[in-house]
Structure formats: structure tokens, C-alpha cells
Amino acid sequence: RDGQAQYEVIDSMLSEYAVLGFEYGYSLAEPNALVIWEAQFGDFANGAQIMFDQFISSGERKWLRMSGLVVLLPHGYEGQGPEHSSARLERYLQMSAEDNWVVANCTTPANYFHILRRQMHRTYRKPLILMTPKSLLRHKRAVSDKAEFITGSSFHRILWDDAQKGTSATKLVADDKIKRVVMCSGKVYYDLLEEREKRGINDIYLLRIEQFYPVPAMSMSKELGRFKNADVVWCQEEPKNQGAWTFMEPNIEWVLGRIKAKSKRPVYAGRPASASPATGLGKTHKAQQAALIDDALTIKG
């Protein structure tokens, strides 16, 4: 239509290395184009690891060349096995330094919309590594209001508990009565939300990290500052040696020290360390998922 920008979709060949390299080059040549490459599953991006290591993560530092390339990596533990569960979030976080790129995991349509829009409206360019949803595309609670898309709305690096927004049956106690803050990212938030409602828990607050890097330290300080007497848990679906835990732990610890919280360090709730990203057995997957949710929502002692 007249007045609309050109939109082109290309079903590329299954050579992640070749295609991602092309898209990176295209983003350098056309900085005003929103260039997006989506992996079939986030796991498959490892076929293009050279491009991430040599170019996307460090190209600006080495050659002063900015890129606004967006990389969409479907990520989430849904019982699909070790090759269709993890986009290897930990690898991108390990390479994060000197504001080299943005690493995020959005849980609402509005935040996804705004983070893509921000790519073009900024006066500079940074690559965007985005863990994208699978089952959340159809999840009845992964929705946004019209007001969250229009004038006055924006991207949120941290998202609040649905109970605070009034879209959950849970009526939370006052901030100073909250006993635990469960910090998380991605699909596991909705699993925690539904289980908390089933149990009738009203003194555990769920706080979502939507942008991992650059670390939203000030936003974290503001929100966690509301709950200085609560213990803090980091809950993730990934094994302990994977996912965001090793990246987030020292950053959360820094924030807790800054706000002089009673809890000095976050506690881990998730799968144990594993050589494989995920189990190939559906029964085992369900048992592991139930265990990590229970661990995050059970206050002992």
C-alpha cells in the first residue's frame, strides 16, 4: 500500500552459517532496514557460531561497524528433546560486554512489538539476540491490551506480576509482607503464575526479566527495593550450568547489596547441571518441570 514500507520474507536454505553471514552483511549495508533472521529452532544457531563469535558480538569493537541485525531464536523447555529446547542463552550472555548487543526474552506481544520498534527508532544500531516463544504463541495468558501498543507505551526491561496488574485471581499482600520474590524469564513465568494460583499463595511475588543485557540494574533496584525483607529466588527451566543463572546471580547480588536487602544472594531453583540441554523423555521432562516450579514456590522452615 501507499505509505507502507516494503516487507520481504525469504525462506532461506538450511545453512545457518551462510545465511546469517549474509544477513549480517546486509544489515551493515542497509542500516535503515529491519533485518531479521529466525532460526528454525534456537538450538540450530550453533551451526553459525563463527558468525556470532567473529562478527555479530564483536564487529563494532573490532571494526567500528554497527549492525542492527535481529536474531530470533525459538527457546523454551516443552518436552521436545535436547535438540529442540534450548537456544543456548548462556553463550550469548557470556559474550555480552561493552554494550555490544541486546539479549532479551519477551513474554508479551506488546514487549515483543516495542523491542523490534526500538531497533529502528534508536539513533544507533546494536544487534538484538532475542529468545522467542514457541507455545507462548498460543498461550491464553500471553496477551497485551491495546493501550500497551499505542502512544505513551514503551518497552519494559522488567515486567511486573500479573496480580499487580489485576489480571490474576491472586490478591497479593502488601509489599512489606511479601516473603519471597521469584525472578524468572520467559515461558516459566506462566507456569509459576498458574501454579501459584492453584495453591492460593499470596505472599510470593513473580518478577520477570525481559532484557538480560544490558543489565537493567536500576529497574531491578527499584522493584526489588519494594521487597527488602523477602528472600530472592532465580527460577529457570534450563540446567544450572546453562540458561541465565551464572550471568544473573552476580548482578542480582550487586542489586541486593545496593538496596541493603535482608537477602544477600539469590537462591537457585531449576534443573540440575547437565551435559545435555534437555531430556529426551517426556515423563522425565514433566517431572523435572514440576520439581523446579515446586522448589520456587515452596518456602521451607
Describe the structure.
With 301 residues, the chain is an alpha/beta fold. The protein folds into 2 domains: 16-138, Rossmann fold, CATH 3.40.50; 159-297, Multifunctional 2-oxoglutarate metabolism enzyme, C-terminal domain (Rossmann fold), CATH 3.40.50. It is built from 10 helices and 10 strands. A 5-stranded mixed β-sheet has the order 1-2-4-3-8. It has a 5-stranded mixed β-sheet with strand order 5-7-6-9-10, sandwiched between helices. The longest helix has 16 residues, at 282-297. The radius of gyration is 19 Å and the shape is globular. It starts with 15 loop residues before the first helix and ends with a helix.
From the 3D coordinates, which CATH architecture of the largest domain would you assign?
3-Layer(aba) Sandwich
Biggest sheet overview: 5 strands, mixed
Written as H for each helix and E for each strand, in order along the chain, the element string is HEHHEHEHEEHEHEEHEHEH
Query: Count of helices?
Result: 10
Strand portion: 15-25%
Low-pLDDT windows of residues: none
Distance between the termini: 63 Å
Mean pLDDT, all residues: 95
Shape descriptor reads globular
The fourth-level CATH homologous superfamily of the largest domain is Multifunctional 2-oxoglutarate metabolism enzyme, C-terminal domain
Q: State the secondary-structure class.
A: alpha/beta
Task: List the keywords.
Rossmann fold; 2 domains; single chain; globular; 5-stranded mixed sheet; 301 residues; alpha/beta; 10 helices
